[in-house]
Amino acid sequence: MTPEDPTERELDQLLARRPRSAAPAELRRRMEALASETRPAAPRRLGRWLAPLASACAAGLLVWVVVRPPADTAGARLDLVEEAVNDHLRVVESSHPVEIESGGIHQVKPWFTGRLDFAPRVEFSGDAEFPLVGGSVGYFRDRKAAVFLFRHRLHSITLLVFPADRLPWRSHGLRSLGPLAVDEQRSRGFNVLLWREGELGYALVSDVNLADLEQLAPRLNHP
Amino acid sequence: MPDRGRLAREALQHLDALYDHGRYLTRNAVEAEDLVQETYARVLGAAATFGGGNLKAWLFRIQRNAFIDQRRRSRPMAPSFDPAALDTLDGAPAPAGEDQLAQLRRMTGADIEAALFSLSDEARAIVLLDLEGFTETEVADILGCALGTVKSRLSRARAALREKLKDYAR
Q1: Given 3-state DSSP classes, what are the helix, strand and coil percentages for chain B, each rounded to the nearest 5?
Q2: Which of A184, B5, B73, B83 is the most exposed place for a label (fewest CB within 10 A)?
């Protein structure tokens, strides 16, 4: 609109002074990570000698990637913890923390069908100590996640279930909790438990005691 | 087919604009972050369908659709995001006098923001898209309605906003 009326011009000038918000640094970092994971397409045609050279370089790079020490994975793992805590905060601060209220896990799980490109494996229906509030769809880094919300007394516990591929999972210093090998972390006052089962990754986050989370985690798939 | 990686990087140049627009749409910083993240996920998923042209307008269209879906999910029983709601606003604005112009000049950023938030979702969206520099044709494409509809709705939305601003200026 190109206002001719002085009032319209005045309105435009006024609205140009409206508060504007830049994207938070954490969001920008996540989106940049998402963009950097999207590789440009390979050139369609290479010269006769260039193609074998490129293949050799690619093979060398692959060997380097496989054998190199995991120099930056500690920071990347911390990112997983921060992501889990941020996701938990989004859930508990939301005015609508769940999209499907619980009538038991067998009501919540089918609700995810068609909303996710994987089936979240969670068998625990909740009990008096850890009632299941419901579920929703969220994001964990660059992928969709099934979000389950449990309560423990007055505390909220968020369980995120997501495809585990291409994430920097810790492989040592894990704690055995029944059948699970769990990476236990703490950030900003929240306890975070991370583990893998098959192709799925799990993040359990809350401000409840670590012992309470350790009690819940193994029951989620092995009630 | 567009280069998905290049598209993803170019889309990042509009991150601040998408977040700012998202914050005005949702009125909530956390929901705005979720909306932007959902928008970028959809953008990457639909990169192959981008036919060139105005990338920013394409991003805003995807964001609008994501916002509508977000609202439907979180408030299934609430009134829907209804473009026709604007049609209930009456007629052309009354001409402003010098007093009103002086009042407008004195308004703070917080007053302006509050006035924008007091508009309906659709009125706020159309005013902000106009301020974002989109042409009326682009706004029509983003909102999925006819050009003539955009013209009339934008005029009504701005008239409604002027009325709200008068209230805040008192």
Answers
A1: 75, 0, 25
A2: B73
